[in-house]
Amino acid sequence: MTGDPARAEEASWVDGFNPCKPNAARIYDYLLGGKDNFAVDREAADQLMRALPDAARAARANRAFLNAAVRYVAGQGIGQYVDIGAGLPTSPNVHESARDAVPGARVIYVDNDPVVVSHARALLATDDLVTVVSADARKHESVLSALELGGKIDLSEPVCVLFVSVLHFLANSEADALVAAFRERMSPGSYLVLSAGCADESHLPVQEEIQSAYGSGTTLSGRPAAEIAAYFGDFELVPPGLVPVTEWSARVPNAPSRPRWEPPAPAKASMLAGIGRKQR
């Protein structure tokens, strides 16, 4: 049976799902060695790795950072977590890492991808302390409203908010507004965990290649290191401070002290990661 390819692609788009176009969550899943991806995602990931040869290593390091950060924060007694732009479930998930130290940890996973949300809800439906909500990180009001409806998180108590590998998918103004909205509402003793793509004008050719790999449906915007550091506001950075995410692999930081931060000078582009604590 033959037909118009455009019509076939249109027919494949159901509730936001289109296997004919690469998807950021599925590309990340492939880079991590997962199976929740399609040929178009694998082709995009291969193109990404031609532009950025250490993309798969960075993805694995980014996931290791997330788990190390959550274990550290849980070790400080934090029992509630908000994971913004959570992506497809990848074990260990945030709630699994947190519960190593806090068995009753509550987690809200937030994403605007309908497939991610549906998949996460199907896997986590039996856990009463885990909620998966659909909200668009580009609109911080919708994220905060979704948290209120979820009812699992109390921002008047210490909380850990995670922006792991999500801010570079937002426009600068959107990312700034989103992080600032949470910083303002988080209570003293809360933690901010983030990783974000780092790039400046010297990396424009590589950024264009990376953008081409993701396609027109996804916009990427790497930031200079100083702009990423600014996301933390007056939060105190946990050692080793804001550093390339690959330095966090298999590492759990020590207790907070005076941070170390030196802007990196990557050969192409990199991802920076850090943990910040709101002081009492």
Write structural notes for this entry.
The protein is an alpha/beta fold. It has helices spanning 5-12, 24-31, 39-51, 55-75, 94-98, 114-124, 140-150, 172-185, 204-214, 225-230, and strands at residues 80-84, 106-111, 130-134, 160-164, 191-198, 236-237, 243-244, 270-277. The protein has a single domain (55-254, 264-277), classed as Rossmann fold. The chain has ten helices and eight strands. Strands 1, 2, 3, 4, 5, 6, 7 and 8 form an eight-stranded mixed beta sheet that branches. The longest helix has 21 residues, at 55-75.
What's a quick, concise take on this entry?
This protein has helices at residues 5-12, 24-31, 39-51, 55-75, 94-98, 114-124, 140-150, 172-185, 204-214, 225-230, and strands at residues 80-84, 106-111, 130-134, 160-164, 191-198, 236-237, 243-244, 270-277. It has 280 residues and is an alpha/beta fold.
